[in-house]
Amino acid sequence: MSEVERTPIPCPFTYAKGHRCPGIIYRAVGYGPKRGRNFAAREDVRKYRLWCSEKDDHAGAVPTISGKLRMEFYPDQLAPDVEDKLWDYGIANG
Ligand SMILES: [Zn+2]
Predict the structure, then answer these.
(1) Does the reported pTM lie above 0.70?
(2) What is the Å distance from ligand 1's center to 16 Cα?
(3) Is residue 94 scored above 80 in pLDDT?
């Protein structure tokens, strides 16, 4: 897939007032068993943590559990094509 064919992955974060974050996802880490490698393979990922161009991980200045969880998603919580794009674009565990 070439650069021009890439459609950006919109940040899935929604603010309390209901508007979506305008950021673009630029980094993702998939958590799961690493089986001796540095990162989990796609089929082993149980949860993703995302970073966006506007607010990074949306965790806020003061570390809290709820802040940490704001940008963590189970694979089935992501929009249908998002997980494919994370891996196709080399964003996930890159
Ligand atoms: Zn965002």
Answers:
(1) yes
(2) 13
(3) no
Contact in structure between 13 and 52 (CB atoms under 8 Å): yes
Spans of all domains in the chain: 3-88
Place of tokens 């796609």: 42
Distance CA 58, CA 46 (A): 20
How far does residue 27's CA lie from ligand 1's centre (Å)?
11
Residue 30 CA, ligand 1 centroid: distance in Å: 17
User: From the CA of 11, how far away is ligand 1's center (Å)?
Assistant: 5
Q: CB 75: neighbour CB atoms within 10 A?
A: 15
Interval between CA 9 and ligand 1 midpoint (Å): 11
Using 50, 70 and 90 to split pLDDT, how confident is the model at 4? low
Q: How far is the CA of 45 from the centre of ligand 1 (A)?
A: 21
CA–CA separation, 3 vs 69, rounded Å?
Answer: 31
- Residue 63's pLDDT is 87
CB 54 within 8 A of CB 23: yes
